[in-house]
Amino acid sequence: MRSLPDVRAPLRLRVAAREELTPVVVLLTLVAPDGSALPGYAAGAHVTVTAPNGHRRSYSLAEAGGPAPTRYVIGVLREEGGRGGSVSLHDDVRVGDELDVAPPRNAFPLLPARRYVLIAGGIGITPVRAMAAELRARGDAEVTVLFLTRSPELTPWLEELREQGAVVHHSAERGRLDLWPWLAEPDDDARVYCCGPTSLLEEVRALTVHWRPSRVHTEDFAGVSADDVGGAPFTAVWQPTGERVEVPAGTSALTALRRAGLPVDGDCEAGTCGTCRLRLVAGRAHHRDLVLDDDECAGGFMPCVSRAVSEELVLAPPTG
Ligand code: FES
């Protein structure tokens, strides 16, 4: 019997264009080398790119999606203190190079509403730009875009967003933007989406505690730092051998499993690349990654950032 193709297998894509959007953000346009259509996606989706130095990083797609796009466009923020993936994409990638790209996934989908408040901080504008474009094309909802950056020089797509009516706020000139006027009135016909640094996400969550939680959607695209796994201790049971591994607070399950000599891969250690994926056989997990979608959370677990709700989790290597 012929096996089905693996739709999650990486695509080999060519860099068709690169543009320095700001001193720290480069825009990469990725296409199929033969010009064929790429797997479809909807706004809010991201792809995982393997940089020339071997590190894998996830990036939101910056354009509205569709069933058969001919290109993926990503904005890469240069992160000097990171694990080197973004610096390699900035310094080592030229037009014509080919990169491995895992097909789009969407952990931040646009759900139906009559009104949207889209809030972006810094490079968090990439999914918000795609969402705004998709909503404009649909034309059936009221959309407000709030874009917070430090200065005009560090603001990608500044003119485009202003022309589209976005509120663009530079904190170096005018201090913090008070978001309360847009969030004061909870509205069951509205949804709030926010992508940006953790501090902005926390502010938006604090300002929307009186909203129904299902109407507020946040995404920290820096992922979760491996040094910030926190959480209560739990026991990871390695199903193939029955070995019990204690995972202390402040230590990731990935680190604990590796210290115990168990063969678990990892790369980004931030819940974004998908490399460390395990099977969740039993127990209740607190999923903190950007890899698994809702359906996959029942049977998957990313040990680099996710924790347990139950006292123990039974884990196994991925199948296949
Ligand atoms: S190591 Fe990248 S998702 Fe866990």
TrEMBL record:
Residues 8-111 form the FAD-binding FR-type domain. CDD domains: fer2, PDR_like. It comes from the Bacteria. Gene3D superfamilies: 3.10.20.30, Nucleotide-binding domain of ferredoxin-NADP reductase (FNR) module (3.40.50.80), Translation factors (2.40.30.10). InterPro entries: 2Fe-2S_ferredoxin-like_sf, 2Fe-2S_ferredoxin-type, 2Fe2S_fd_BS, Beta-grasp_dom_sf, FAD-bd_FR_type, FNR_nucleotide-bd, MRET, Riboflavin_synthase-like_b-brl. Residues 232-320 form the 2Fe-2S ferredoxin-type domain. Keywords: 2Fe-2S, Flavoprotein, Iron, Iron-sulfur, Metal-binding, Oxidoreductase. This is Oxidoreductase. It comes from Quadrisphaera setariae.
